[in-house]
Amino acid sequence: MSEDEGVGDGTGEVGDGTEGVGDGIEGSSGDPRVLLAMNAVLSALLASTVVWGLDLLGAAAYTLRNVVTLTLIVFAVTYAVVLR
Question: What is the pLDDT of residues 2-59, one digit of tens each?
């Protein structure tokens, strides 16, 4: 490989005319269902961790109701912030 092929120079070009990862991410619209599913899963994980921590401190009980409630709150806030 010659040095003028652009590999590792930070330009995002490989030398054969293909786009870099950053260019692919910026040009992709994606499927909104995947975004919503990821938001739901990550919100549930965060809510579960927070409620577990609050239970450890004695501030709230670790129940399914508390986890679901916080999951819905985190999901809604994230969804609203992303759509702004």
Answer: 555 555 555 555 556 666 666 665 666 778 899 899 999 999 999 999 999 999 999 9
Tokens representing 16 are 């054969």
Spell out the residues 6+ positions from residue 74 whose beta carbon is closer than 8 angstroms to its own. 43, 46, 47
CA distances from 8 to 5, 15, 23, 24 (A): 9, 10, 15, 17
Residue 48 DSSP SS3: helix
Residue 58 to residue 54: CA distance in whole angstroms: 6
pLDDT value at residue 84: 74
Which of 48, 52, 47, 55 shows the shortest CA–CA distance to 74? Answer: 47
Q: What angle do CA 39, 42, 48 make, to 5 degrees?
A: 135
